[in-house]
Write a structure and sequence with these properties.
Rossmann fold; 38% helix
């Protein structure tokens, strides 16, 4: 489906990154805003985003005046983040965020600069993949640095978890995980924080409805999360598309739009003092 969205040729990875940036990433804006309000992110904040994706969360923080740094292992998403945060100067004038944003491919193995806030917002990241970066933060960030971990709320409060069961069922031979098998709920998030050497220091819930103009956009957006990759490999793209569309049927509205109510959980942890 994604191949009809853009003119010209793009690789599948490029198309999926664009779908993430243009369709799916915005669904977590309520989460970003709630966390930034609670931690008073502003002009004096130095913020590090782990798994920053195509940079929307960093862009919102930069819009509040924060100096932002982002890491991501997805080169295609990171390229879009650079477009957003490091645009070329226009008419000889410096770009708005140039000098206030740094973006790096990969994961931080050691921190070289001080940060006030560290975020790990992507709920699709398995805990095992996130743990090394959090350990680096715990070892290198200053005492009391705030570290925010986010995940799905209770499955019964997340309509999308029912759709993502398609990924688990079709991808079972390749070990696909439903959202509840990833970071889900306060206990999972706090356990991950403690495993990294961080001290839990509060939590919250945020309503993050997933809304799409039509079922085709919903399918593209959900595929862009990466949660269906194992299902596609175990079956084929057409079958996965078909089964996602069928699973979305209860969430279609009379006007053709799709809306799924979800609750996300976040935990604030702190880097312990020396």
């Amino acid at each position: 489906m994604a191949s009809t969205l853009y003119r010209g040729t793009r690789s599948d990875a490029e198309r999926r990154a664009r779908d993430w940036a243009e369709i799916q990433e915005r669904m977590l804006v309520p989460l970003y805003g709630c966390v930034y309000d609670r931690l008073e992110v502003g002009a004096d904040t130095r913020l590090l985003g782990l798994g920053c994706g195509s940079g929307l969360a960093l862009l919102l923080a930069a819009g509040r005046g924060a100096a932002v740094t982002g890491y991501d292992t997805d080169e295609q998403r990171l390229a879009l983040a650079r477009e957003r945060l490091l645009p070329a100067p226009a008419w000889g004038m410096p770009a708005r965020h140039r000098g206030r944003a740094r973006l790096t491919a990969g994961v931080p193995h050691r921190l070289t600069g001080g940060f006030d806030v560290v975020t790990a917002f992507d709920p699709a990241t398995p805990a095992a993949d996130l743990l090394p970066s959090l350990c680096a933060v715990a070892a290198g960030a200053g005492p009391d640095t705030a570290v925010v971990l986010a995940g799905w709320g209770p499955p019964e409060r997340c309509a999308t978890s029912r759709v993502l069961r398609v990924a688990a069922r079709l991808g079972e031979p390749r070990g696909a995980a439903a959202p509840e098998a990833r970071l889900s709920g306060r206990d999972d998030l706090e356990d991950l924080a403690r495993a990294a050497g961080l001290r839990p220091d509060g939590s919250g819930r945020v309503s993050c409805p997933f809304g799409y103009p039509d079922p085709a956009s919903a399918v593209r957006g959900l595929l862009s999360t990466g949660l269906f990759d194992a299902a596609v490999e175990a079956t084929d793209p057409q079958q996965v598309d078909k089964e996602i569309a069928e699973a979305l049927h209860p969430y279609r509205r009379p006007d053709g739009t799709v809306r799924m109510e979800n609750v996300f959980r976040y935990v604030i942890a702190r880097v312990p003092g020396a």
